[in-house]
User: What shape does this take?
Amino acid sequence: MQTLQPALRLLCVNCNIRIEKLRRHLVFELDTRVISKICEWNPSIVITEEHYICDVCKESAIQHVNSGLANEPGESSSRGHMHACLVCGSSLRNRKCDLIVRENPSQLQQAIYIELENRIAPRQATSLDHVCHPCWLRLKRVATRNMQQNIQLQAEPEPEPEPELETELELEPEPEPEPQPQDQQAVEVPGMITLLQYRRAPNTASHCVFYNCQNRDLHRFLTH
Assistant: This one.
């Protein structure tokens, strides 16, 4: 099943009105002097081969070129249609519209204006521009949502820095015990006698405590 493609919205490069049902012209097919005049009216827009202009704006540009008139960008005499929504290009005749507040705006109005600039870039809003009420409501919803997100981000506490792990102190290696000489037979310690290389003999009074000793001349150790 073939999917339907969304209808292409064509806007006049000069007055921004929708021109799908209006007589229109490709800008690059016009006289170079007329193209220069259109570029003079819209300095923020780079004219390409895909831009169209409505018939009223084209005739106005030709009239200005022939008469040598000079108009500042955005002036009423340079626009073929004055009642067009700046966002969607719909005609504002017999429709409710809203004026974009630029001087001394409230916080919400400033957020709406910023969102409008993002929508229409590189075109710039002027004091003569209006927005239809549906587009204004959409701009207001987006601006309100952005303001709420900014408030939530500002209210969130900053994460505390993690404490640095203390470096473990390097333990000094314990000194190894000095090796005892092999020929040392016993080490005297107060209260006891330590016998080296001693293997216990049978616990009897008739044998020497040293292993395999056959001497019968025995002596008794006194213990405390």
The beta strands are 24-26, 52-54, 97-99, 130-132, 186-189, 192-195. The longest strand covers residues 186-189.
